[in-house]
Amino acid sequence: xxxxxxxKAQVKPRPPDSERLRSDLNDYMLKRGLRSTEQRRLIxxxxxxxxxxxxxxxxxxxxxxxxxxxxxxxxxRTMKLLSESGVVQEHKFGDGFTRYELSDExxxxxxxxxxxxxxxxxxxxxxxxxxxxxxAKRYGFVIRAHKHEMYGICSDCQKPKAQRGSREAxxxxx
Length: 174
Description:
Blueprint: H1 18-31, H2 38-50, E1 54-55, H3 56-66, H4 72-85, E2 88-92, E3 98-102, E4 110-114, E5 120-123, H5 126-138, E6 149-152, H6 155-170
Parallel strand pairs: 4-6
Antiparallel strand pairs: 1-3, 2-3, 4-5
Helix pairs in contact: 2-3, 2-4, 3-4
């Protein structure tokens, strides 16, 4: 690391425990007498394999590549079921879409959201978690859930502006 460089190695968040979450979902469905239909299983399998913050439209496209008979309403109802079961977390990142990801408290992470390209970067920061706990304790508050999202411009979207700025500063043009 160079002198004055304040960047730190980026740590990828832990992946969710898919097996445990599938088991939790099965328990939830059994307790409520919900059937595990072929279409529902397909949607769930594709969702669990997605490893991204997926929209209903994107999930529907992937599901229809396997079974063209699956409708939007079926995907929507399945994602609603997953959300209600606690296996999935819904996110609204301000772009008009609801995005879904596996919800595993053991693999908690926060988000950086680029306002230019929509890129979503997941990160874990123990100092943020410790500060949240300290603040909750100070106010006698018991945290049940939280989300931390920061909105800005990612490094990729900053590059063209930075290059333009440095050329203008030198008095050159492209």
